Amino acid sequence: MQAWRVHRNGEPGEVMSLEETDRPTPGDGQVLVRVAAANVNFPDALLCRGQYQVRPPLPFTPGVEVCGTTEDGRRVLATPALPYGGFAEYVVADGAALLPAPDALDDAEAAALHIGYQTGWFGLHRRARLQPGETLLVHAAAGGVGSAAVQLGKAAGATVIGVVGGPEKAAVARELGCDLVIDRRSEDIVAAVKEATGGRGADVVYDPVGGDAYAKSVKCVAFEGRVLVVGFASGNIPAPALNHALVKNYSIIGLHWGLYNTHDPAAIRACHDELTKLAAQGIVKPLVSERVGMAGAAEAVQRVADGTSTGRIVVLPGGAR
Fold it and tell me: How big is the chain by its Cα radius of gyration, in Å?
């Protein structure tokens, strides 16, 4: 089969190599899945760089989520068992963790409903307890993770403020349903949030960026607000000033979605059921900006790494469609 493999750590566009290799063999409790669509995520870039919290042995295939078909004909969502990641024609995955692909979504959309939307749902509902009528501030609102949070925030009845970089991404965020869009390149995030909220600030901040985004978030978070730490796409991990959290009375909340697989897998299945219902109702739909064939995977991962993409780029091993 064809698979993209990484033999040394570095930038995705430099270290990913398309090769012919053997199909992976399922171990105990695992199943073989033929990949129909593999969604590109920022962790794929971190895997290539050797900077992710999980470091598979070299060589490995990146790709952390797929939609595909099992040998018994089920259409499923899967998180491949590394080192045999999703940018390949076949993967192996834990059979107990497979989720049924939503009928309302095509393969590319279904692949993109998994980790990003689960992260958004757990973050907004289980961790931050977002309530109808509250104000949600979403950083990188036109990206894959941020766009999911925007849709889920609107579905929860929140007023959503999206932060983006540049006019093209601002247009995407507006189309997603943001009530207000702030272009961080030309506008003052703190001033804009305070003006939009009558000086109160955002009740919940969804931050997959870190760095300067976090620093500005804590300057415009509301009394009893919640800052959700989802990731560090900027490459800068902030050091929170806990005295500031004390005097302003806000919470800093971490979210590592993958831990639910270990500690509460039933919650993941329940979340998937809810996301499937929302997709069937047309309330959420992953923003798939590009569908590329297998040959375009390395370039796609590099673009996500560089922050130049919007929404999701999905790799289709059978050819772009």
Answer: 19
In terms of Cβ atoms closer than 10 Å to its own Cβ (0-12, 13-18, 19+), residue 320 is: middle
Residue at 220: amino acid letter? C
What domain range includes position 293?
A: 2-113+286-316
Element (H, E) at 37: strand 30-39
Q: What is the pLDDT of residues 274-284, one digit of tens each?
A: 999 999 999 99
Residues in CB range of 20: below 8 A, 6 or more apart: 1, 2
pTM: 0.93
What are the backbone angles phi and psi of residue 56, rounded to the nearest 5°?
A: -70, 155
Note whether residue 140 is domain-resident.
yes
Q: What is the pairing mode between strands 30-39 and 66-70?
A: antiparallel
DSSP H helices, the chain, are 12-15, 42-49, 107-111, 115-121, 144-155, 167-176, 189-196, 212-217, 242-248, 259-263, 265-280, 297-306
CA distance 119 to 64: 14
Assess whether 145 and 227 both reside in one domain: yes
Q: Determine the 3-state secondary structure of 47 from DSSP.
A: helix
CATH number of 215's domain: 3.40.50.720
The predicted pLDDT at position 319 comes to 65
In tens, the pLDDT along 181-233 reads: 999 999 999 999 999 999 999 999 999 999 999 999 999 999 999 999 999 98
Structure tokens at 294: 């297998």
Q: Helix or strand or coil: residue 283? A: coil
Q: Do the beta carbons of residue 16 and residue 6 sit within 8 Å?
A: yes
CB atoms within 10 A of CB 244: 13
Bridge partners (DSSP) of residue 61 are 84
Q: What angle do CA 229, 144, 23 make, to 5 degrees?
A: 105
Compute the distance between CA of residue 237 and CA of residue 254 in angstroms, rounded to an integer: 13
